[in-house]
Amino acid sequence: MVVALRRRHAFDVSFMRGDPERIGRQSIVFGTAFSAPALLLIVQAGAATRLMRGPDVVAARLLRALGAVYVGGYLAERQVRRSLSRRGWDPVESPMVITALALSVAMFCLGERGDPGTWCRRTMVQRWLDAVSRRHIETRIF
């Protein structure tokens, strides 16, 4: 969120576009190009807290739903797609976007683990996460 606020990357999806001059206020309800709305981040923190206290099916399902929404949101965002392309590669934004996308997928999978009837075993999603983490290390982001 900090990078998007400093660089004034407002949200920009196919049907809505934020105003870079009002990014601070809009980040609360609509989010930024690189982060979910602050309200959703608060809900995520509450669900994660409940899950840390012990098994909680409601919190696990909520985290799974938020992970799915975050992945869809990242892929719909124009600045994210630009940061993932070769032409738009940025040494700060691109690794951050890859990490955020991978963590959103991981949140979905971990939410599945806390809920009976999961499908996220050693699947294509986990292989994709492994590949992203290998690429993350190879690009020497740190």
What's a quick, concise take on this entry?
The chain has 142 residues and is mostly helical.
Throw out a few tags for this protein.
142 residues, mainly alpha, single chain
Q: What is the number of helical segments per DSSP (H or I, 4+ residues)?
A: 7
Distance between the termini: 19 Å
| Largest beta-sheet characterization | 2 strands, antiparallel
Low-confidence stretches: 138-142
Write the layout of secondary structure elements.
Layout: H1 2-7, E1 12-13, E2 16-17, H2 23-29, H3 38-53, H4 57-76, H5 78-84, H6 93-113, H7 124-138
Antiparallel strand pairs: 1-2
Helix pairs in contact: 3-4, 4-6, 6-7
3D structure, described in words:
The protein has 142 residues and is an all-alpha fold. It has one domain (2-138). The protein is 65% helix and 3% strand. The protein is built from seven helices and two strands, in the order H-E-E-H-H-H-H-H-H. The protein has helices spanning 2-7, 23-29, 38-53, 57-76, 78-84, 93-113, 124-138, and strands at 12-13, 16-17. The protein has a two-stranded antiparallel sheet with strand order 1-2. The longest helix is centred in the last third of the chain and has 21 residues, at 93-113. It starts with a helix and ends with a helix. Mean pLDDT is 80; it is low at 138-142.
